[in-house]
Specification:
The chain has 78 residues and is an alpha+beta fold. The protein has a single domain, classed as Ribosomal protein L28/L24 (Ribosomal Protein L24e, Chain: T). The chain is 26% helix and 36% strand. It has a two-stranded antiparallel ribbon with strand order 1-2. The chain has a two-stranded antiparallel ribbon with strand order 3-4. A hairpin with a 4-residue loop joins β3 and β4. α1 crosses α2.
Length: 78
């Protein structure tokens, strides 16, 4: 399962893990991705999205229907 947010497009970041001896190894910092079901009233159906917590806050702020409409305009299949 790809760890990419459907709304914001947020994915992993790379950085260095630094040990006590100051040896650096590559580390991936993963986003907090959750599977969430929403009820879309305008279309009378449930949709499941993989979202980061930032994406959930975006839906709470702008509304589910507006976010889904923008995602479909960008080419996402929902």
């Amino acid at each position: 399962m790809a760890k990419i947010c459907a709304v914001s497009g947020k994915s992993y970041q790379k950085g260095n893990k630094v040990s006590f001896s100051n040896k650096k190894t590559i580390k991936r910092f993963m986003p907090n991705i959750q599977k969430k079901r929403y009820y879309l009233v305008e279309e009378d159906k449930w949709i499941t999205l993989k979202l980061s917590t930032q994406g959930m806050r975006t839906i709470n702020k702008r509304g589910l229907y507006n976010v889904v409409k923008e995602m479909r305009a960008a080419g996402a299949k929902i």
